[in-house]
């Protein structure tokens, strides 16, 4: 190879090397930028997953949604459930007077039972399984209550027509009264806010009250469980 050819080849190699070094130098900042951007993205993803809070959050960062349960809404005294009135009806206190329409087209009042014991059983709704069983159980024991000078009266917020259909369908012998305005139910603490399947509504609390011959409350059963309840009330009547 001639000197001229070697010089030309050397110049060509030097030029290629210079261009390669220049390209590498130019690529370094770009690579560094890409690596930095990738690191920032990775950090953001980690922050989202772990929910960790740092002293400073990136600008334009959207705060992650909180998974904490919302705080319970406080109620004002005006919206307090009527169940709170149950505290006013205590054993030994005078039973609130009432006058209600009953099945058969008549009316019934507390004064009708003066000198006798009276069992009031408040039930949520006529002709539902639990209420039906409870009414049938009190009917089954009606004669035993009568033998102990005790009357029995069922009360709910159902219309009178529904009460009469309930009586006829199940051949109930105990009288049933209708309190559609909820005045008596509230006075006896058997009406208020209830909750079922996450839904709140106003309704009747299954409650039983035993009133003595002097018109005073002898015993109160709250949150009644139907099975065996009528028998338990009869036992209390006999012991009173």
- The CATH topology of the largest domain is given as Glutaredoxin
Radius of gyration: 41 Å
- Total strands: the figure is 9
* Total number of helices: 6
Question: For the record, what is the CATH homologous superfamily label of the largest domain?
Answer: Glutaredoxin
Strand content: 15-25%
Structural class: alpha/beta
**Largest sheet, described in full?**
5 strands, mixed
State the assembly state of the protein chains: single chain
Region (Disordered): 1-81
GO molecular function: thioredoxin peroxidase activity
Biased composition (Low complexity): 11-28
Pfam family, one: AhpC-TSA
Report what the structure shows.
The chain has 240 residues and is of the alpha/beta class. It has 2 domains: 51 residues; 157 residues, Glutaredoxin. The chain is built from 6 helices and 9 strands; from the N terminus they run H-E-E-E-H-H-E-H-E-H-E-E-E-E-H. The strands form 3 sheets. The chain has a 5-stranded mixed sheet.
